[in-house]
Amino acid sequence: MSQPGAKILVIDDEPQIRKMLRITLQAHGFSVSEAGSGEDGIIQVSTVRQDLVILDLGLPDIQGIEVLRQIREWSEVPVIVLTAKDREEDKILALESGADDYVTKPFGMGELVARIRVALRHGAKSKDDDGPVLTFGALVIDVSRRTVELNGEKIKLTPIEYDLLTVLAKNAGRVITHRQLFEQVWGGKFQESDSQYVRVHIGHLRKKLEKDETRGTLILTEPGMGYRFDDRVSP
């Protein structure tokens, strides 16, 4: 589902890239707006509701990573980083700063559109769907409302983090491999390099849910395999 009419903001200082993205995405039924600088992008995200942001890291005024961090201070809008930087360190930094996905230039429009659809699916899942309430000690996951509470306080999770948590919690006690997590949360065909996506977002979850995220008492690491949600231990 391409979610026709979904609003996408492209933050990129290259007019040719913005034009190509605008024409292609509009052809797929999306509504596209543009920003040629980081400052303009931040203003547009803060003043107009966006369904997804495509963000270039090499902006002329503010580094894209800083733009991403500022957006993440008050918004959970899905963000796909689009950049010529292809080093693993850059990808990890973008993910750790709150990006939902990472696409390097040059890129195929088919792949980008597919990744946009996945990100929109995570960001726009209905909160009215029927579902159970999962309780693990002080941790409560209300699947119908897509909310998470710990010790009575609501925990703010990104759509990716929430989907990872629910997949693990619904399979509590079972080992879920990197491949299974990636295919259920991100969709698409799994490659070994995608394990890094999973590890980074699991790290984010642990920081929000566990007293000592380095040890992992709730989300356990199964070396060389994946993760297991331990329903016997309260966070």
TrEMBL record:
<dbReference type="InterPro" id="IPR001867">
    <property type="entry name" value="OmpR/PhoB-type_DNA-bd"/>
</dbReference>
<keyword id="KW-0805">Transcription regulation</keyword>
<dbReference type="Pfam" id="PF00486">
    <property type="entry name" value="Trans_reg_C"/>
</dbReference>
<dbReference type="InterPro" id="IPR036388">
    <property type="entry name" value="WH-like_DNA-bd_sf"/>
</dbReference>
<keyword id="KW-0597">Phosphoprotein</keyword>
<keyword id="KW-0902">Two-component regulatory system</keyword>
<protein>
    <submittedName>
        <fullName>Response regulator transcription factor</fullName>
    </submittedName>
</protein>
<dbReference type="InterPro" id="IPR039420">
    <property type="entry name" value="WalR-like"/>
</dbReference>
<feature type="domain" description="Response regulatory">
    <location>
        <begin position="7"/>
        <end position="120"/>
    </location>
</feature>
<feature type="domain" description="OmpR/PhoB-type">
    <location>
        <begin position="131"/>
        <end position="231"/>
    </location>
</feature>
<dbReference type="InterPro" id="IPR011006">
    <property type="entry name" value="CheY-like_superfamily"/>
</dbReference>
<keyword id="KW-0238">DNA-binding</keyword>
<feature type="DNA-binding region" description="OmpR/PhoB-type">
    <location>
        <begin position="131"/>
        <end position="231"/>
    </location>
</feature>
<dbReference type="InterPro" id="IPR001789">
    <property type="entry name" value="Sig_transdc_resp-reg_receiver"/>
</dbReference>
<feature type="modified residue" description="4-aspartylphosphate">
    <location>
        <position position="56"/>
    </location>
</feature>
<dbReference type="Pfam" id="PF00072">
    <property type="entry name" value="Response_reg"/>
</dbReference>
<keyword id="KW-0804">Transcription</keyword>
